[in-house]
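TICKET #2291
ISSUE: user wants both folds in one file
ATTACHMENT 1:
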Amino acid sequence: MHTPDPRRTSIVRTGQILRIVAALALTALMLWWAGPRSVWQAARGASWWWIGAAILLVIADRALMAYRWVILLRTIPSAARPPLSQILRVFFVSTYLGTFLPGSVGGDAVRTYSLNRLAVPAADAFASVFLDRLLGIVSLLVMAILGLVLARDLARDPAVLVALAVTTAVCALAAVVIFSRRAAVLGGVVARWLPSERAGRITTGVVDGLQRYGPERRNLSLVLAASIAVQIIRVLQAFSLGRSLEILLPATTYFAFIPIILLVMLLPISVNGLGTSQVAFVGLFGRAGVAHGPAFALSVLFLGLGVVGNLPGGLLYAFSGGKRDAPR
């Protein structure tokens, strides 16, 4: 029986505590800067018609997100592929649990673990989740570049340029691992040099799992198209919430700002984007002349909308034995 390493457990818990502290500190700082009274005045007058429209858009984006993962799982041999109902259950429960975990990686870890519990090889489970996340980031990168075209002053911001450059480099490196046979050979060499035989097997399995997607150009194109559609829907969600708060900016402003904000929210330094999203919304929308109070209120509504979209997974977790999906 595997005994957890106390030092590793302590490091993980310390990291979790630091992320929670960072999320609360950033949120409190931005709330103080925006002014609680200004935020409350903006929020209490929100139009429920526009909020209802945003909720309908959330249903659409969750359906597309589930669809793209189902497409990626087509590469797994049918004998090892779980039924569609179980795949969807894993997807929605993991998105719900990801609400309370750092960045997006927590929900991805739960998804990988849960799929492996359904007899899918761990390397294949990881590869499908990794590709799903990677293509989501690529779609954000595409939208962010479009945003720079719409808001050219952002192209002069060093922080934005560094973020886009790092994201591009990560995506390019992942593409090499997926499409280059030399990467597979290099992965085998690295695996042989690792001190642990188990670590070597995991490395080889992960590289092989990712390489399996190399010939699947059509499926990858479908997933990328669905991912771009998801990002467009998210921009429209923010636009609807902005209208509910009487932030009357043109849609092009949202298409310029929201992809950058979503990239910031992916940073694993808080919990579910709490704190980082407030900084990004107040900072970017302030450039467009939006007062800090309404911008902060918009950030809270945007986060809350994501929680609403994750509620179906919460219901599955609560009423259909979902607790077995969550690793300690």
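ATTACHMENT 2:
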Amino acid sequence: MRESVEALWGWDEELQRQIFDERFDGTQFQVIQVDGKDVGVLDVDERDDEIFLKLIELLPANQGQGVGTSVIRALQARGKPVTLRVLTTNPRAAALYRRLGFRVTEQTPERLFMRSTASGASS
């Protein structure tokens, strides 16, 4: 995540800590586990008409192993559209979301806003 933020705005450690303290409520995070080990975090806002994927982060050692794909497919299987936003400087994540059936609905210089249908990824 740092690389993506740094590419857009630069990195100011003090500012990043302040933003984190103001915006992130750790009580809402779900810990993602694999074989009993903590490998990441998930923050989801389930709304009446959609699921908003606010955050999914995996430890670097656990990326590229299908963990994120499994979590996102489980969200898609709930039968509602899934929406998210991703930094434009994070093409790896955007590519994953596209493979899972997400399409860009809006774009700014900093972010892609994406949505998948309730049925999830296409084959």
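RESOLUTION: both attachments delivered.
EXTRA DETAIL ON ATTACHMENT 2: The chain is about 30% helix and 35% strand.
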